[in-house]
Amino acid sequence: MPQIKKFDGLLVNPEKIDQVVTPSYDAMTPAERRTFAEQNPDNYVNVMRTLEEFDGNGPTLEEILDHNQSHLNKLLGRGAFIKTEIPAYFLYQLRLGSHEQTGVIATIPVEDYTSGRLKKHEDTQLKKENMLTQYQQTVGVTSSPICVGYPDQEEIDDAVARAKLASPCLEFSAWDDVEQSIWRIDDAEISAQLEQGFSQIVYTYLTDGHHRCAAGARIAQSAKDQPLNTTNSNSRRLFVALFPESQLRIFSYFRCVRDLGGLSVDELLNGIRSTGIDVQEMNAGRDNGLLPSQARHITMIVDDSVYQLQIPDSMVPSDDPVRSLDVSILQEHVLSGVLQIHDARSDSRLSYVPGSDGISGLMKRCAQGWQLGFACVDTTMQEVMDVADAGCVMPPKSTWFDPKLRSGIFLQYC
Question: Which has the higher per-residue pLDDT, 285 or 282?
Fold first, then answer.
């Protein structure tokens, strides 16, 4: 059960929202982030610079972290953030078109993660864990809430609805037109109701922020033996946004392959058919109608032609929540079995496109020189929870949660 605690940090100055709040960080490539940072010196993305943005002759990690800390001090000196005098829970709502999701901004004990009460569905990379740990130790803040899903709970829903009857303390449109609203909860009764509601939940589910959790666990461990009066209590807690699972929207990640590994198109098609997967050519003029509409159907683009791959029931293991996923079957039988791409995490022949870009995004990538594209049906939140409950992890790039939470709204000292 998550023992939530009120947020005790800083909130963006309403007069500086347009300059400070970042675009969706993960939706930008490292090169795009570098360009954006240079063109928007007052944006919080300048506190989040990484080695990925620079070539081999760029600054060292230590120099980048010093830059990040220096830029944070400049933002604070310019009044970009305002201290919340009294700790409070906040609501964070994102709205895009007809989709709306509202989360509770709070902190939870890092022990929820290390004990498995906050369940994960992805593996982490040691190199990225190291970088984020060093980042938090040097810069000393985080502005990116970890996104956590929880099973729908009526008491929490009621508390959130009551809190939203008041006017938001912040309202703005993000760079990609996602409407953002923030409410501060000062009503003690509503706060108590939230705490009571979350105390009844046994497990929560990590959606975005696996590496930040891992880094947070490291920092908490290093602070464990220090006296409480010499270490910030936030070092033992995770800064989170908690959303009901029914409101979270997941897209798939599309797969792009640089080449056919020496195969002709006919050899590729025959190789896929030899696995037992049915292959049928589709009408390429239907645009978004080309996306798979149900599980066990995969769209494949090659040489300006579009094919539907249909997975037979006999290929789907009923007792394995990971290997039964479409992305797992695609990886095992097609990417690895036919195209000899065995490492889905690091093989340079394989790349990924967020499913939120639609089939046009996949076609655009194929037009840029990638010879082959695959689109699977969107992963469901139930599948995410099933995998996490089984203590397993999904293949790399199985989920793209959208819309993304933004940095530069809240500022939490580590």
Answer: 282
Using the Cα atoms of residue 14, residue 16, residue 21 and residue 23 in order, give the sign of their dihedral: positive
Neighbours of 192 (CB within 10 A): 11
Residue among 104, 81, 57 nearest 407 (CA): 81
Domain ranges for the chain: 10-249+402-413, 253-377
Q: Can you tell me which residue has the tokens 């964070």? A: 92
- Look up the CATH number of domain 253-377: 3.30.1760
User: Cα(33)–Cα(51) distance, rounded to whole angstroms?
Assistant: 11
- Residue 235: is its pLDDT beyond 90? no
Secondary element (H or E) of residue 31: helix 30-39
* pTM: predicted TM-score of the whole model, two decimal places: 0.90
Instruction: Give the CA distances from residue 79 to residues 42, 168, 266, 327, in Å, rounded to whole numbers and listed in that order.
Output: 11, 21, 62, 46
Helix axes 154-163, 188-199, angle to 10 degrees: 160
Neighbours of 230 (CB within 10 A): 7
Contact criterion met (CB below 8 Å) for 91 and 102: yes
Closest CA to 341 of 239, 260, 249: 260
Alpha-carbon dihedral of residues 201, 207, 209, 210, nearest 10 degrees? 90
